[in-house]
Amino acid sequence: MSKIHVTTVVNGDEVEFLADPRETLLDCLRDHLGLTGSKEGCGTGDCGACSVTVDGVLISSCLMLGVEAQGKKIETIEGMANGEELHPLQRKFIEHAALQCGFCTPGILVAAKALLEKNPDPTETEVRYWLAGNLCRCTGYDKIIRAVMDAASEMRGAA
Amino acid sequence: MDFHTPSSFEDASKLAAEATGLTRFLAGGTDVLVQMRSGTVLPDNLIDLKHIPGAQDITRTPDGGWRIGIAVSGARLGDHAELVADWPGVVEGMELVGSTQVQGRATLVGNLCNGSPAADSVPGLVAAQASVEITGLTGVRTVPVEDIPAGPGKTTLQPGDVISGILLPPRGENGGDAYQRFTPRTEMDIAVAGCAISLRVDGDTITEARVAVGAVAPTVRLVPDAADALIGSTLDDAAIDALVVAVRAACNPIDDKRGTAEFRTDVAGVLAKRVAQIAYGRAKGEAQ
């Protein structure tokens, strides 16, 4: 079993790692690159806690192999805030208390950011469908949806 | 496990035929990685097809149909306005597979080759008379989509066979297609029953139709009797009644935790009626 050398761009920085071809992108982010913001809830693409974007497309990083990341551009939760300045979605999640234990939060923030980049003015129904693959066992979702809608509104106003 | 990235389907076919141990092709990976994770499938060889030229492309064929690359994700299908305009039923079937995240990776060919009787994208392809191009050891051949599934988790593909493209026929004038499924939840669920219909009209009269059902038999099934019930009609009540009877007669479902055989059969008929109305409206150019 030989490891494969992978070069990829994560949150704007070129990185490299040696991956066992069986390791998922999530394994590689967490174990080789120390980026532990993406969480493993289920490992089978059901919960969305490991959401990242690859070349701008929202995916579950547990459903992609690390070796497939060669030459791609990956964005994770670690790239969302600008230094100490939180992204509007992150700020609104705090304001609306849209999290309790926080395990699902990085995945939901990454997924919501991907939605607002594609559709800056989503309806509540569109937000609920887009985030249907992000499971939260604490909040009951309403506060999450309100936070996303409020962030979308603020981001449109600021544009 | 050895990881291969062939640059042609011929090489992929040869690799698969010559490999020892368990071999899997990788495109979107949304089934293969789950199987690897659960330990049900631990491949010795994984052949990534995404680097093969054309694998990521959606292109018009010279006859006015479409060729869809084997690694095109559901998200990319949904973003392709021209393809959606031609074959909305095919695209809406694929878009029901999994979450937004899964849509970023999952492919039509993967959904087909996974062999689930409940695969949401397959009835739409069958109704549309789609075919797959297969690259095998003896060359390239084209096979109707309905001939690929052989039973739950099984396909008719032979060792060394690799699907190298999906082909949709030209939509032509006055055509429409649609797919619906029943699930207890609105999202993130597997079909209890599904139905796709593609048809063509001349004025108010249906001149061509194909009806396919999913999750109500060991494979997705084409139902010629149901199509015959529609052809020549104006989708009047008698035609709909005959459609529903023919669809229910073609059902041979299992009882499981998602629904009883009796319920699945009943719902397949209800879906056929609704889907026929949507496809008919689309064929007549009414916005739906």
Describe the structure.
The complex is a heterodimer of chains A (159) and B (288). With 159 residues, chain A is an alpha+beta fold. Chain A has two domains: 4-79, Roll (Ubiquitin-like (UB roll)); 88-158, DNA polymerase, domain 1 (Orthogonal Bundle). Helices cover 34% and strands 16% of the residues of chain A. Chain A is built from five helices and five strands. Chain A has a five-stranded mixed β-sheet, with helices on both faces. In chain A, helix 2 packs across helix 5. The relative contact order of chain A is 0.16. Chain B has 288 residues and is an alpha+beta fold. In chain B, the strands form four sheets. Chain B has a five-stranded antiparallel β-sheet with strand order 4-5-10-6-7. A four-stranded antiparallel β-sheet of chain B has the order 11-12-13-14. Chain B is globular, with a radius of gyration of 19 Å. The interface between A and B is medium-sized, with 31 and 27 residues.
Write a short abstract of this structure.
Chain A is α+β, with helices and mostly antiparallel strands and 159 residues long. Chain A contains 5 helices and 5 strands; from the N terminus they run E-E-H-E-E-E-H-H-H-H. In chain A, strands 2-1-5-3-4 form a 5-stranded mixed β-sheet, sandwiched between helices.
Pair of chains with the largest interface and how many residues each contributes: A-B, 31 and 27 residues
CATH topology of the largest domain in chain A: Ubiquitin-like (UB roll)
Unreliable sequence segments of chain B: none
Percent of sequence in beta strands of chain B: 15-25%
Shape of chain B: globular
Share of helical residues of chain A: 25-40%
Query: Using DSSP, what is the number of strands of chain B?
Result: 14
Task: Provide the gyration radius of chain A in Å.
Answer: 16 Å
Strand tally of chain A? 5
End-to-end separation of chain B? 48 Å
By CATH, the architecture of the largest domain in chain B is named 2-Layer Sandwich
Q: What structural category characterises the helix and strand content of chain B?
A: alpha+beta
